[in-house]
Predict the 3D structure of the following.
Amino acid sequence: MRRDTMIYYSGYSPSKECIEQNKKDKVVYNKLKREASEMDFNSLTRTLIDDLDERQFTRKYINFRFNIFNLVCDVIGDYSTCIREYNLKDPFYNLQNWTTDDLIYLGKKFKNKFIIPSSIGGGFGSYEGYYYTDEEDPEKFKKFSKGRVKETGAEFYYYSKNSKDSLEISGNTGMDYIQFSFYNLPDHQVKVYQYINSKKTVKTYEYKYDKWEIIE
């Protein structure tokens, strides 16, 4: 479980191995935290968008998927004797760093496409849905247009640089899908998992001399 949401259940007693592992994790976590303060994550987001290959997106619509809930529950051995206290996967750079302005930047790169953000749930249950106009902060999406789901009539937000016309989609509307996940690494690095439709690409970026470069 993430450090800031840790809830211990009654009777939990960490083993000696668990205590030692969490001490080691704390050292790594603090190193990541210190290095995070030295990096420009906003420029990493824009770099990831710049590095996208337009040839991989053949459809008119691009569905950008946010993984909005990811239960992290690492254990060592028996669950009743050890819970990992520190999130070492993506504590400082994750999809919460992405903003609607970044999606607009994506839309300007693909100026003939429609960018439709959606959410994907995880953990014990899962769900997927667009950002509907009656559920989201309108100020957050003030630069977006409104589309409509044909089957339900529900309105959702989308962005297109060249089109402000009303957009209607249905359950069988063909789209390209893009999703990211991240691992924060020591030494000013972030490992990026990029999913475009069914293709996965893994790259490691390093922050050096005030810019991000691919190192593997």
